Amino acid sequence: EKRRLTERFLPALLGTWRKMRDSSRPSRIILVRHGESVGNKDRAAYCSTPDNKIPLTRLGMLQGEAAGEEIRKLVQDGTVRFFHSPYTRTVQTLSCILKSFEDRQVEICAEPRMREQDFG
Fold it and tell me: What's the pTM?
C-alpha cells in the first residue's frame, strides 16, 4: 500500500517542488565590479589606507552611475535585489547605481563573503 501511494503521488509532489524551486530563482544575474578606486589610480594608497576602506575616485562614481543607468534599462520594471560586499568602494558604487532606482523599491543585501580574498 505504501509503495503504491508513493508511486502515485511522488511524481506530482516532485513536479510541484521543482516548479516552486524554479520560480524562486532569479531570471538574470548581473555582476558589477566597483568603479575606479583611489587604489586603482595610486597603489601607494594601500600603504596608508586599509584595503576595505579605499574609496572611489570621481571617475569611479560616474562609472557607478553609468552602470546603474544600464542596469535599469536591462531590468526595466522587474524585481531587483542587489548584493554587495562591505568594502567602502563597493558600497559607494552601489550608492551610485541606486540613483537610477530612486523611484522604485529594491532589495539590498550586504554579503561579507563577497570580497577580495586575503591570502597573505
Answer: 0.78
